[in-house]
Design a protein that fits this description.
globular, 2 domains, 473 residues, Urease, subunit C, domain 1, alpha/beta, 17 helices
Length: 473
């Protein structure tokens, strides 16, 4: 979502010194294997040149003579966390937002709509140590229909335009194509075909005119926010889709909004568990990942009841928080009390759907939808992990959704996702065991991002800078 950004101030907290030949050692921690749930106590992890060069019991792994040692005794070491749905790559927001991910142990993000030039610039600055921030993969611009929801989207009216847009986005450096809500079904299908032909994944919303099973069969790599699933699970799906056609709701967002309000709770009341179970089986068979983003689903459905009392808001730029008022949000300002009540019923249905997906073995990724209302960089990833556990995941499964699952999704298990020799040194040292209580992921003692160490003092300094900057606005 585009913003008018103020210029970014110079960072008061200098990024960590770029890794050199000097070894960095985390000594004495319990290393958590996020694939199996096994724990290795009293471990020693040796890092050089941003990579883990050895990990094992301290009795076996020699302490390098030149080591910078981090005391891990009593701590629990996990891979760096990923937020797989964010919006941070905008000019002027880098110093304001990206350090907050590191302060919260989030060492990787998937950008779902930003500026490609900003994303590339931030990547380069983070790599050289000029900017504190996570590793970034991203789509750049949204690919939407002829009447796009968000300014700055790439648009396509015809299948031919859709295919050309795939080519241009790939040539511009997008890591994947993000499809969006009001793409005409024939254009969406052409995008899917072209993306497969040129070897670039596509992910995003399941457009309103497309059934969730069809999206899976066409190869959509991930679906965000559980979009398209409640309607695809309705016993009245065919009739509702006819209504969508009659008001052109598949290509016009205001029409889709109006129809959604008119239908009220019909989709909810006609939920068919057997239809949904068939969709889950299709997702499993096709490896269609789900990024449920329960954090934003909750905030959007309860925003009329939420107040700016969360202490974490002190770290978020005020001009962003001011935009989280439902009375000024074009998506929400027309909602009536009855509409808000129906939105909370949709939230309850989404909770049920996620719980059933977990039981069915649908692959899940943790994502939040930063910068939507009350979706805060870094902080909200921990909220999302809690929502996943509330939906029936074990703490280990929730942790996998933010560590090894992103590595699998990105085809990067050779370098990311677990703590092993040869992997990139993206790590979080916790003061308590997250496999006992998922909320322990917030108890951060140190973060290693790309081999650069941030102890608690440096992490607190990042937060203090953000808080002081916002207090002065």
């Amino acid at each position: 979502m585009p913003f008018d950004q103020p210029p970014a101030p110079a960072a008061a907290v200098a990024p960590a010194t770029p890794p050199r030949d000097t070894a960095l050692v985390i000594d004495g921690a319990t290393v958590i294997d996020v694939e199996s749930g096994n724990r290795l106590t009293g471990a020693r992890v040796v890092i050089r040149q941003r990579r883990i060069v050895d990990v094992g019991p301290a009795a076996r792994v020699a302490m390098p003579t030149d080591a910078l040692r981090i005391d891990g005794r009593g701590g629990f070491l996990i891979p760096g966390l990923w937020d797989m749905h964010v919006h941070s790559a905008y000019a002027g927001l880098g110093n304001l937002l990206l350090p907050l991910y590191i302060a919260n142990g989030v060492t990787g993000v998937r950008e779902m709509f930003g500026q490609l030039f900003a994303m590339k610039a931030y990547r380069a600055q983070i790599d050289t140590g000029a900017l504190i921030g996570p590793r970034i993969v991203g789509s750049g611009h949204i690919l939407d229909g002829p009447k796009p929801i968000w300014p700055g989207s790439v648009t396509a009216r015809t299948p031919e335009q859709g295919m050309r847009a795939v080519d241009s986005l790939k040539a511009a450096g997008a890591d994947f194509i993000k499809v969006y809500s009001v793409l005409p079904p024939d254009v969406y299908r052409a995008i899917a075909t072209r993306a497969k032909a040129v070897g670039i994944p596509f992910a995003g919303h399941i457009p309103g005119g497309v059934n969730a099973m069809e999206a899976s069969a066409l190869g959509q790599h991930s679906a965000e926010h559980l979009t398209g699933i409640p309607l695809s699970c309705s016993r009245d799906e065919v009739a509702i889709r006819r209504m969508r056609d009659s008001v052109k709701a598949d290509t016009d967002y205001p029409a889709a909004q109006a129809l959604g309000r008119a239908l009220g709770s019909r989709v909810i009341d006609t939920f068919d568990a057997e239809k949904c179970a068939a969709i889950y089986r299709e997702f499993v068979a096709n490896r269609t990942w789900q990024v449920p983003t329960m954090t934003v689903n909750y905030s959007i459905s309860h925003l009329d009841q939420m107040t700016a009392t969360d202490p974490r808001l002190a770290y978020i730029p005020k001009f962003l928080v001011q935009g989280w008022d439902p009375k000024t949000d074009f998506r929400l300002k027309a909602l009536t009390p009855a509409d808000w009540e129906n939105s909370r019923k949709t939230w309850a249905l989404n909770q049920r759907i996620l719980r059933e997906m977990v039981q069915a073995g649908v692959p899940i990724l943790a994502g939040t939808d930063v910068l939507n209302p009350f979706c805060m960089p870094g902080f909200s990833l921990h909220d999302e992990l809690r929502y996943l556990v509330e939906a029936g995941m074990t703490p280990l499964q929730a942790l996998q959704a933010a560590t090894v699952n992103p590595a699998r999704f990105l085809a990067a298990t050779d370098s990311l996702g677990t703590i092993a020799r040869g992997k990139v040194a993206d790590l979080v040292l916790l003061d308590a065991d997250p496999l006992v209580e998922i909320g322990n992921t917030t108890k951060i003692r140190a973060v290693i991002a790309g081999g650069r160490a941030y102890d608690r003092t440096r992490l607190d300094a990042i937060l203090a800078e953000a808080k002081a900057r916002n207090a002065g606005n």
